[in-house]
Amino acid sequence: MVRKGLALAAVVALAACATTPRGRVFLPELALDRAPGRLSTKQKKAAQQVLALAAAGETKRARDKLSSLPSDHPVRRFLELEVAFAEGTQPLLGQVLAFAQAYPNYPPAWELAVLAGEREGELLEAADAAGQLAALTADSRWERRRKELEERALTQAIAQLQQRWAGGDPVGALSGARQLLERFPHNRPLRELGVGAALATGKLAEAKLLVLPLPEDAAGLELKAQVAAAEGAWEVAAELYRRLPASVPGRCPKVREAEEKARWQRAPERIAKAAKAARLSRGELAALVVFYFPQLAEKAAGPAPLFEDLVGYPYQTEVLVLVRAGVMTGDPLARRFSPSRPVSPRELERVLQRLVEVLGLPGAVVCRGEASAGGCLGAEESGNTVSGEGAVRLLSGIWGKLPC
Q1: Is residue 376 over pLDDT 90?
Q2: Distance (Å, rounded) from C-alpha 366 to C-alpha 371?
Q3: Which burial class, exposed, middle or buried, applies to 380 when counting CB atoms under 10 A from its CB (0-12, 13-18, 19+)?
Q4: What pTM does this model have?
Q5: Which of 6, 10, 153, 196 is such that its CA lies 20 to 30 A from the CA of 101?
Q6: Is 331 helix (H, G, I), strand (E, B) or coil?
Q7: Phi, psi angles (nearest 5°) of residue 202
Q8: Residue 281, strand partner residues
Q9: Tens digits of per-residue pLDDT, 203-257?
Q10: Which long-range contacts (CB under 8 A, 24 or more apart) does 28-31 make?
């Protein structure tokens, strides 16, 4: 008996669930005075009853009441959509939009499209429908709703595109950014995302087009510098990085890297040759020092020495600058500089130490071996000669200690 009682109670409960109204649902009013097609007074009353039943969640009774309306009447078709919306039917937006486009001057159809689009997550479609309503009704509330839906749609879309990029799909992120930029060309986060994704996928020409409209504030300058660097336009990149505010994190290293690459892009062949020397000569060292620090010419205030072995020498000008600035010395009595003699590690150390003193960087000292914890620069220690590559490394280190 107990089991039968429980079973009966379960049946009663299921039946109650099946007949209990779903709860109230907001549905657009019918606006029968603007509805397409004529209806009798009785039919209008029936249409209002259908809407009231659907809004109350009594969708079964609402469907039964629909039979009192002509089967091919637009109002009945619209009410069928409203009942389906009250029932929670998804997807429904496509059908609602088809109806609204068939009867574009009927505001309730666009209002239902707003509701269906928002429920189904199609926020841009909902925003478009709100825009149609704003135009039809001249109601500022719908224009505000359109903007709000667009903002929500953009925020969600950008977050999704960022996730795609972070998940290893920059191609998909760029494709999505392209589509959205057609509609929202002035949205900055979207444009910045597009620039980054274009760079990540090697679409340099597209990155250049996307980055151009960005304002030249800190973020805009940095993105433009990144595009210039990706293109290999290091002079441009260096100039853009230099224009960043000093407070931007990592500004100085970025400036230095771009300037270093730009330096070697414009390096004449004879300097490039010196940098590749397996056994760097004194003259080649002088050429590299002046190449890195052309400001030494302003410090060359000493008397002009007469070195007979510099006549016709390719690096004569650079040697004289360093001698007059007190960075290198020759033998004034013998009138010789010995420009072809290989530089020893100890001589390089002395030259670089004098260089940092002339430049006003007494803290940038040169160490033997690896750089110490104190920040000095590690000079080559093995062998009796110095390579051009080793000298360049040390010169670059000294140059990096100058103020940006």
Answers
A1: no
A2: 8
A3: buried
A4: 0.75
A5: 153
A6: strand
A7: 75, 15
A8: 342
A9: 999 999 999 999 999 999 999 999 999 999 999 999 999 999 999 999 999 999 9
A10: 28/82, 28/107, 28/108, 28/111, 28/112, 28/115, 29/108, 30/75, 30/78, 30/79, 30/108, 31/106, 31/107, 31/108
